[in-house]
Amino acid sequence: MKYTIGFSNKNNMWTSKYDYVSSNYSSIDKRFFSNNIRVPSAENALYRHHVGSVNRFYGQQYPSSVAVAFAGDPSQNKLYKSMSLEGDNIATNTINVFTTSDFIQDGDKKYVSAGTVKNYGGNMYAHLGKDPRIRPTADLKYMGNVVRPRRGGIVLKELGFNLYQIAINGLAVGVGQGKTNGTKILFKISSHSNIQYLSRSALAPLQEGLVFNDVLSDITIATSADLQRVKLSSPYQPNGLIVKIDSRESAETFTNIVYNLGEPSRGGVVLFALIDPTHAGDMMRGQYAEAHFTFPPQKFELYSLNLNYEPTDLDHSK
User: Fold this and answer.
1) One domain for residues 109 and 219
2) Residues 108 and 204 in one domain
3) pLDDT at 37
4) Are residues 207 and 84 in the same domain?
């Protein structure tokens, strides 16, 4: 909640909301004064507005913020493609968050995508982000079938630092993970119907409607920072995939799964890489959208926000 609301008698309208709290106001010869304590002291009797740095009240600096809703044609499902900002002196370090009706329930936002405003070709664009929900057809990449050795053989070759090499049939392809955000490993066991993952050394199913952060997988593809510790440049080796496993208990659980549940005649254990949809997923979607901008404390003027979307007949719940 903002604490102070400004009203313009000249324009007969509410003009803005402010973070600061004031108690007494006065205007003298077109100069505006106020005080933020109920019993002013001699040292802090009056504060003059509209002098000094922008957005500074009673010695404290505040940002500016704008919140908007886009609800045109609210029954139409939409894919949100881009949002441009028109204005003067809009900074590239302006922060914005974006969400849609698909993630708003009873006024609460289950998910917002946060980022900064960018300058592309002289035009300012907001950050919309990607739809975070997992879609198996788009976000799961086949990595190969785990080679089940004879009883007593090694399923996981330990490399140190919680890193292991999994022998797989089929060439594992790169999935474009970030330097620090490990791509998660899921698998399909031949004797089970669901795609699953290890979470705290126990099996958990990949359920419909989950987002990437809901999948607390104990196994991830080794990142470049991990690989440096064992002097490797890539997790995709000719004789296996390099992964990081959170605990020895999880490594033992995975080994037991390969030995006891993966029937080679039915495909054994098939590995999949789960890519973070917020980096590689689909456009944000919904029937309406909300955006919030936080501008740094500087002079600027915002003329308009232009949201570009594509109508679609697809059901967003899938």
Assistant:
1) no
2) no
3) 75
4) no
Query: Of 47, 62, 77, which closes a domain?
Result: 62
| Contact assessment for residue 283 and residue 79, using Cβ atoms and an 8 Å cutoff | yes
Tally of CB atoms within 10 A around 306: 13
Q: What is the pLDDT of residues 79-113, one digit of tens each?
A: 999 999 999 999 988 999 999 999 988 878 888 98
In a domain, 54, yes or no: yes
Give residue-wise pLDDT tens across range 1-44.
Answer: 567 888 888 889 988 888 788 877 888 888 888 887 766 565 66
